[in-house]
Amino acid sequence: MFDELTFPVVAAPMAGGPTTPELVAAVSEAGGFGFLSAGMLTPATLSSQIDRTAGLTGRPFGVNLFVPQPDTGADLSDHRNRLQEFAREYDVELGEPRWDDDAYPAKLEVVLEKRVPVVSFTFGPPTPSDVVRLKEAGSKVVVTVTTPEAAQRAADLGADALVLQGFEAGGHRSLFTDDPRLPGGGAEYGVLALLRLVAARVDLPLIAAGGLVHGADVAAVLAAGAAAAQLGTVFLRADEAGTSEAHRKALALAERETAFTRAFSGRPARGLVNKFMDALSEGAPAAYPQLNHLAGPVRKASAKAGDPEAISLWAGQTYPLAYDASAAVIIERLKVEAREAAARLDRIR
Questions:
Q1: Which of the residues 59, 148, 262, 331 has an alpha carbon 20 to 30 A from that of 71?
Q2: Sorting pLDDT into bands at 50, 70 and 90, what band is 2?
Q3: Are 190 and 164 in contact (CB under 8 A)?
């Protein structure tokens, strides 16, 4: 699977716009492996994006699904009241904080029908029956984990490979359980620590993710035992990415710190700190996807205005090292950097 790639780099699925069929196809064409993100798409849109990607490349690519979350029953009243200030500022009505399953069953049927080569999961493992159905359709099953215990659970379910997401990663943490008492929602393992702990525990191909933006990072995780490196932040500024202009500008300025927040969606995610995070992160309840729907109109209005202060500026800790370029140029630069890093290992005798 991933150990057969010309260059062992995976483009992370980035929901909400950054991941496009053009980006996925470009990464796969350059010798890596691209993932479409099904999160927050309708089943019809997902089907269309799969067809579009297949029309752009004859190489394999994958699809990532969000596993439905339980309704926590959290009290949203205080968060809603604080959100009203932003709703007034952008002259919008807050959304309806409803629970839904992100049309997961219908999207699963789409990837089964399309016989997508690799299907990955975020926010938890698929059910054993879903694993069986996907394998019967010829798909490989990949589960994103943040702890050694989650890795063992995913392996026991029959996963073909694991994405190991370190705390350095941008975007949502793929926690199996979100602990509202902790800013990051659970134990925080760096990518190298997680890679070594999981490698000692399960015998599966491991894809390392979290703060990897340079070819030397790719070489480092391969040397530590990974089958591939998954990168997201470095592709946010790719020509083919659907990243908003306000997000791109904030990334390019590289003036902001990153931090975890539940304020936008109800689940912990790492992004660039802005006014929205400063005002609402503390006390934000663990309530996904209710908060995601509640804050949606504010995010959309902020993005439309080109204002970065109320949009989710997801990015990994090393985002200042990313740059503007086509996906092909990014992949080629990563290759050169990785070879240079590997050459430095000659010092080890």
A1: 148
A2: confident
A3: no
Question: How do residues 324-340 score in pLDDT, each as one tens digit?
Answer: 999 999 999 999 999 99
Query: What is the C-alpha to C-alpha distance for residues 71 and 61, in angstroms, rounded to an integer?
Result: 32
∠ Cα 321 244 57 (to 5°): 80
What's CA 319's distance to the chain center, in Å? 14
Domain definitions of the chain by residue range: 2-347
Contact 262, 290 (CB under 8 A): no
For residue 325, CA distances in Å to 53, 64, 283, 315 come to 20, 24, 38, 17
CA distances 207 to 93, 95, 304, Å, are 41, 36, 35
Residue 349 has pLDDT above 80, yes or no: no
Distance CA 43, CA 107 (A): 5
Of 127, 121, 123, 164, whose CA–CA distance to 140 is shortest?
121
- H helical segments located in 2-119: 21-29, 43-56, 77-90, 104-114
What does the alpha-carbon distance between residue 9 and residue 27 come to, in Å, rounded to a whole number?
9
Burial-class residue 344 by CB neighbours within 10 Å (0-12, 13-18, 19+): exposed
> How far, in Å, CA of 65 to CA of 298, rounded?
25
Peptide bond preceding 21: is omega within 30 degrees of 0, i.e. cis? no
CATH 3.20.20.70 fits 2-347, yes or no: yes
Q: Are 149 and 169 a contacting pair, CB within 8 Å?
A: no
Distance, C-alpha 339 to centroid of its chain:
26
